[in-house]
Every structure is written in C-alpha cells, then in structure tokens.
C-alpha cells in the first residue's frame, strides 16, 4: 500500500513583514511537525526565492516586502494554520491607547531618558533611525547591515559634530560596562578595552582573554568598514578617545579586518597603551595579538584549549573549504592557511531576508553535505548570548555525515549559556578537531593537506 499523499502549497502575503529570527523559528517549528517534508517561511528576497526554487517550490510573483509560506506535507492546510498561529503569537499589539509606542526615535528619547539607541531594522530604514538618534544627542549602535558606505560616512560625520559615538553599521557585538549587546559572550570585568571594526574578531580576542583570566572594561564595535578609506576611521578614533579617558581601562586592543594603511597609520598614540590586531599579510593574527596584550599587562600566556579528533585514517586531503559565520574569522583563517576557498555566510549577500548564520545553520549544513572526502572543512562556531542556543544540535550530525575532515574553531567562554565543553564534546564525537583559537584551527587544517 502507498503512504499518505504529499502535497505542497506556496502562499504569498503582500506587505506582511516579520523579522528574520521570527521566521527562522517558525520555519524550524514547522519542519519538526510530523508529516512535514519541507517548510520555509521567509521574506521574498532574491536569495530566499532562489532557495525555495532549489527546494522545488514554484514561487508566484513577490517582492522583498512580501511574506512567502512554502510547505510540503501530508496535511498542508494544518501546517499553514500552524504557521499562521505562530506568526500571530509573535505579534503583540498594544492594548490601550495610552500604550501607543512613540513613532520616532527622537520622540522615544523625549519620553524616557536613554543612554544608547540600538537600531535593528532592515538596512534601508536603519539610516533614518540612526540619524534620528544622533540628532537627539544619543550614541547609537547599528546592528543592521545594508547601509551604504556613503550613508555610513554621513552618519559618522554628523555624530562627530554632535559628540556622540556611532557603533556600526553591521555592528554585531558590543559590551558596555558589563552589559552585552548583540552577539556577546559572558565576560568578567577587567582592565582591557576593545575597539573593534569586527564583531567575531572582538569575540575571539575577548574569549581568549577570558581563558587567560583577564577581563574587559568595554568592547566598542565600530562597524567592519570604519577603517576603510571611504569612512576614514571616524568611529575608531572616537572610541579610542573614550577608552583613553576611562579609568578602568589599562590597555586597549584595536581589532580590524585588513584596514586602509593610510587610515590605520593616521591613528595617533594615546596615553593608554594600544595593541594592534589589524589583520593583513605579515601582521599578527588575533591569537598572537591577544598574547601580546597579555604580555603587555605582565600576565602569563596559557595554552589555548583544544580537543583532537577521534576519527581514524582518511583519504589525503587536497583542499581547505572555509564555511564561516564570522567575516573577520574567515579572513584570518584564509590568511593563516594561505590557501583554500573561504565563504563568509555572515556577509550581506547571505543574510538579506534571513537570520545570521550564528543563529540559522541552514546554508552551512547544506555546504557540509556538498563537501568531498578530499576536503578539509574549516568552520567557526560562535557561542554567547544572541547566538544559536545549541549549535551542536544542528551541526554535529551533518559534520558526522559529511565525507570531509572537519576542523572547528569554537569561540566562547566557560560562562556562555551553551556550555562550551558540552559543545566541544559533541563536535569531537562527530569526528571534528576543535580549537578555541581560530588561528590554531587554520594551522591544523593546513597541516592536514
């Protein structure tokens, strides 16, 4: 006898916007339902539509502002009803006229005092919200990507005139007085201040410092393009001045992907010592820069924890494939390895209309399945608040099934909610070698060729 018939449906809801994290959670919940073969609820961006078509869904005419519900299941109607129920549960309208939220950032700041504005909206709208915050005289962290470099420069010039700091755009990580914003690890207070044109770069350095029992005062993200020639390091210089004036900061670490040499060279010395972790050919990697910071503080450099793989012999590896969630970690690994193909799945091209790969593993899981037995797959897994609550639950099984040799850079602290040691054990059981230093992971991957 044949089983129940599989049917599919694709619905388009015009102008029904939901944030990517909500949509990822709804998609995952639907996929876990009995009888559901495939489910994806997403905004109809070009990337998401292409993914749906790869999954053999016929997508009607739709645009990035439209919601698509695509389901293949035994009972399509029940699955659609469940998606509507979950989407409705994510929306909680105000119940009384007096609770009507303010319509602008500036009006919100006028209603209640604020120390900082966090902007996390689609990129085309983030500029206006950030500008509103600056005009209200407030520092702003722009979590959103998709802001043009010309608008970034304009925001930072206006912020400089107002005497406030702009962190971002695409600022994924900050720690202000012990409070983490965006993707943030659990860190002890301490003497090191960080200025970072890199979210995952800041996480790598601060997590290694934590392994060395050295805490941080503040982590000020400035956006990955800040040290480019187009932006000119405007936020970097402002952030350095703030930390230089902070009595709790004894040493500053400045972190960036390869910067503009002219912009980096124009940064003046401060009263507070500055250790540079500016990636590039011949420059120290992030682990070496962290070790330099520890020595400058007169503290010992520990052996960075790692867990070797359990698997036996494998075919000779011929190529490194980097499957990264962190752009700076991907750049660092490529520099250290000196060869291979590296993809930053956290880049704007992959995150439009979908959650960041530190939350949604889908694209990297698919890439693991496509790897060959002569590949060394090098990938990062970043822990902390805001990240996937249990990345091993999504990634360990695909690692075990992949024919490739897998090497993991596990970025986190022992205080992070995911339990770093449990994550490391799960990846090791899946056959991966695990390192807390991304640079050491890249060197190990290179040694396997």
UniProtKB/TrEMBL annotation:
Gene3D superfamilies: NAD(P)-binding Rossmann-like Domain (3.40.50.720), Succinyl-CoA synthetase domains (3.40.50.261)
UniProt signal peptide: none
Superkingdom assignment: Bacteria
Domain ATP-citrate synthase/succinyl-CoA ligase C-terminal: 323-446
PANTHER family registered for this protein in UniProt: PROTEIN FDRA (PTHR11117:SF24), SUCCINYL-COA LIGASE SUBUNIT ALPHA (PTHR11117)
Protein name listed in UniProt: FdrA family protein
Source organism (scientific name): Nonomuraea insulae
Lineage: Bacteria, Bacillati, Actinomycetota, Actinomycetes, Streptosporangiales
């Amino acid at each position: 006898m044949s089983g129940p018939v599989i049917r599919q449906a694709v619905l388009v809801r015009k102008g029904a916007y939901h944030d990517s994290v909500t949509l990822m959670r709804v998609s995952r919940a639907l996929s876990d339902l009995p009888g559901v073969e495939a489910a994806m609820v997403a905004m109809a961006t070009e990337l998401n539509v292409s993914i749906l078509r790869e999954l053999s869904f016929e997508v009607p005419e739709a645009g990035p502002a439209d919601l698509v519900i695509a389901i293949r299941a035994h009972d399509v109607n029940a699955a659609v009803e469940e998606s509507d129920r979950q989407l409705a549960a994510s929306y909680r309208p105000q119940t009384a006229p007096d609770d009507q939220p303010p319509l602008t950032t500036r009006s919100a700041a006028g209603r209640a005092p604020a120390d900082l504005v966090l902007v996390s909206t689609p990129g085309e709208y983030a500029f206006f919200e950030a500008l509103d915050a600056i005009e209200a005289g407030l520092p702003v962290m722009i979590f959103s990507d998709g802001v043009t470099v010309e608008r970034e420069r304009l925001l930072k010039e206006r912020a400089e005139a107002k005497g406030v700091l702009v962190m971002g755009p695409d600022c994924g990580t900050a720690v202000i007085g012990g409070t983490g914003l965006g993707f943030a690890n659990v860190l002890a207070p301490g003497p090191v201040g960080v200025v970072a044109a890199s979210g995952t770069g800041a996480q790598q350095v601060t997590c290694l410092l934590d392994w060395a029992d050295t805490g941080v005062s503040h982590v000020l993200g400035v956006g990955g393009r800040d040290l480019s020639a187009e932006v000119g390091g405007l936020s970097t210089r402002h952030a350095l001045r703030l930390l230089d004036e902070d009595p709790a900061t004894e040493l500053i670490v400045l972190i960036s992907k390869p910067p503009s040499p002219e912009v980096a060279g124009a940064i003046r010395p401060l009263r507070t010592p500055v250790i540079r972790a500016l990636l590039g050919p011949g420059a120290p990697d992030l682990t070496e820069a962290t070790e330099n910071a520890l020595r400058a503080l007169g503290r010992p450099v520990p052996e960075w924890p790692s867990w070797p793989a359990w698997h036996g012999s494998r075919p000779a590896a011929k190529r490194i494939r980097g499957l990264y969630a962190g752009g700076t970690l991907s750049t660092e690994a490529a520099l250290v390895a000196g060869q291979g193909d590296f993809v930053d799945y956290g880049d704007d091209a992959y995150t439009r209309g979908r959650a960041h790969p530190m939350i949604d593993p889908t694209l990297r899981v698919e890439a693991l399945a496509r790897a060959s037995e002569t590949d060394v797959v090098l990938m990062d897994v970043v822990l902390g608040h805001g990240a996937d609550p249990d990345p091993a639950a999504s990634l360990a099984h695909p690692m075990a099934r992949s024919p490739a040799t897998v090497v993991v850079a596990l970025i986190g602290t022992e205080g992070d909610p995911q339990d770093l040691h449990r994550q490391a054990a799960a990846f090791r059981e899946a056959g991966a070698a695990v390192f807390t230093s991304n640079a050491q992971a890249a060197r190990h991957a290179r040694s396997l060729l």
